[in-house]
Amino acid sequence: MTSCLNTSRLLCALALAGLAGGASANITQPTYAAAKDELKALYKAEHDGCSGMTGNAKDVCVERANGHEKVAMAHLEYQRTGSTKDRNGYLEARFDAKYKLAKEACDDKAGNAKDVCVADAKATHDKAKADLKANKAIATAQNDQMEATLKADYKAANERCDALAGNAKDSCQATAKARYDQ
To answer: Which burial class, exposed, middle or buried, applies to 134 when counting CB atoms under 10 A from its CB (0-12, 13-18, 19+)?
Structure first.
């Protein structure tokens, strides 16, 4: 119950900071600092809520709190920068947190059931990482293709400009350079 309550508070803090959506805009430094402080306080409260537990239930609770903190901090960083690198870091933090939590939950099982549980958790984690890696490769290929297209279009436009002379040629080349981001 405490974990769910703190998770709700964490999500509320993100929403209040304007961070619940995508990275449509970077956040200001004061907003970032305030949100970071709030997340740290929520993490501490969630972590402290685990102190009354024992055994694997406590381990699961602590792992959940750690995962919430890492994911929230990675999401906050992504919101601050809006960069692809931080987006990927946020996604990896989510995959890692889910994996660690699932693996910790497997400790309640024994024998083959535990082995299967750990293997399933690892397979899910590895699949998510592979999907992220494939998406990175696709994005890189698309960027490379876009750059090659722009370069070829710029070269063709520049050739058309060569047929002109004087100010018309200069204007044409400047327009081509701006249009094709060269």
So the answer is: exposed
> Which long-range contacts (C-beta less than 8 Å, at least 24 apart) are formed by 151-157?
151/180, 151/182, 153/180, 154/179, 154/180, 154/182
Work out the angle at residue 96's Cα, subtended by the Cα atoms of residues 118 and 22, and round it to the nearest 5 degrees. 140
Q: Cα separation of 59 and 61, whole Å?
A: 5
The pTM score is 0.65
Angle formed at CA 107 by CA 57 and CA 71, multiple of 5 degrees: 65
pLDDT tens, residue by residue, 83-96: 889 999 999 999 99
Interior CA angle at 133 toward 103 and 61, to 5°?
Answer: 25
Residue 95, Cα to own-chain centre: how many angstroms?
A: 10
